Amino acid sequence: MDSLYTLAEQWPLITEMSRKKEVFWENPVYGKTIEEPQGFELTLEDIKEADARLRRFAPFIQKAFDETVKDEGIIESPLLPADRFQAHLEREFHKMIRGSCFIKADNALTVSGSVKARGGIYEVLKYAEELAVNEGLIGLDGDYSRFSSLPFKKFFSDYTIICGSTGNLGLSIGIISVALGFKVTIHMSSDAKQWKKDLLREHGAEVVEHEDDYSKAVDVGRQVAISDRNSYFVDDENSKPLFTGYAVAALRLQNQLDEAGITVDEKHPLYVYLPCGVGSAPGGISFGLKQVYGQHVHPVFAEPVAAPSMLLGVMTGRHDALSVKDIGLDNNTVADGLAVGRPSQFIGKLLENQIHSFYTIADEQLYQLLATAYDTEGIKAEPSAAASFIGPIKMDVEEEEATHVLWCTGGSMVPEEVWHSDYQKGKI
Ligand SMILES: *Cc1c(COP(=O)(O)O)cnc(C)c1O
C-alpha cells in the first residue's frame, strides 16, 4: 500500500484532503468515453421495471403505512422552489448563482424520512416478491395488499433480513422488514446516532452495535448472512437492487420538473448536488438521471472533510482499495449518514466519467446550512443532507438558465431535541 506521501505526490489535492481542508475537484474524465466496466448491464428498462414493482406494492404500502395513503402508496417527496434559500446563499457568499435552485425534499419521504427509503425499501420488497411468487402465494398481477395478511407474515417470519448501516439504511430496512413480517438484524457502526438505534428497536428490529466503523458493520452482517440459507443480506457496498431502487428517483424527478414547466436541454442544464456516503444513493440517482437526460444533467457529489471516500477512490482510480484512513483521516463527522471510509465496490468504477465534480464540506458549515435552510424555507434537514446545500456556490455554472437541485437526503425522523441542538450549533 502506498504511503500518504507517495499518494500526495501523484495527486496533490490529497495533501489538502488529509488536513481536512474543504476541496473542490472537477473530474477530468467527465463526459469522456471510458472502458465500460464488465458485468454490469443496467438500462432504463431496469429502472422502469423497478418503478413498476414499486407500483405493484403500492396497495400494500398504503395499507401498512397510513402516511402514504395521500400518495396512494407511492413513496415520494416534493420538489420545492428554494428562492429564499438561494438569495441567502448569494448574500452570504457574495456570489451570484446563475439559474434557479430547488430542494428535493427527501427529508420528508414517507415511511423512513430519508433517501434510503428509495433503495432500502425497494430491495426488501423485491426479495419479498421473489419469495412469495416462488412459494405460489401470489402472482405478479395479484392483489398486493395481501402482503400485509397473516399467511404472508407467517411465511416471511422464517426469513431474516440483515444489513450493516451508519443508521438510515438500517431504519429503512428495519421498518419495511418488520412490516412484512421478516425477522431483521441491523449491524450498526459506532457513528450511528442513538435515536436511530432506539427507533429501530421500538419497531422490533434487532440492533447489533459495533465498536468499529461502517465497513466493519457491513462485513459482520455479510458473514452472518452467508452462514444461513434463510438470511438475506442487503449489501450497501455492492448491491444492484439497492442501486436500481435509488435510480427510480430519476423518473420521479423528471415528472416533477415537467410539471413545474422546467426544461432540461443544452441551454437549460440540470445540476444535481448529492450527499455521498458509500455512493449507492447518489450513484443510483445519477445513473438514473443520466439515462433520462444524458449530457444535459450534471451530478455533483458532496462529502464531509473527514470522509471523502468516493472522491479519493474516483480521483486515484483505486476505488474501494483505498480507505480515507490511508490518507490519515479519522472518518469522524457530524454527518453520520456520510461517515464512510471506503466507497462502494462498483459505483465509482461504473460512474467514473459521469460525475461532474466533487467537493468536501466542513462540519461547522453543515450546521450553518442546516439552520439557514430552516430559517429560509422551513426545511428540517439532518447534517448529512445539508452537504448538498452549498453546491451552487462551489460550482461555477455559466449557463444563465440552469436548474440546480439540492438533494435534501434526510431529516424528518430526527427527534425534536436532537434537531434543535444541531440547529443551535448552526446559529452561533
Ligand atoms: C446514506 C445517506 C446518504 C448517502 O448515501 P450513500 O448510499 O451512503 O452514498 C446521504 N444522506 C443521508 C441522510 C444518508 O442517510
TrEMBL record:
Keywords: Lyase, Pyridoxal phosphate. SUPFAM superfamilies: Tryptophan synthase beta subunit-like PLP-dependent enzymes. Its cofactor is pyridoxal 5'-phosphate. InterPro entries: D_Ser_am_lyase, Ser/Thr_Dehydratase, TrpB-like_PALP, TrpB-like_PALP_sf. It is an enzyme of class 4 (lyase). The modification N6-(pyridoxal phosphate)lysine is found at residue 116. It catalyses: D-serine = pyruvate + NH4(+). Residues 73-401 form the Tryptophan synthase beta chain-like PALP domain. The keyword Membrane does not apply. Its EC number is 4.3.1.18. Pfam families: PALP. This is Probable D-serine dehydratase.
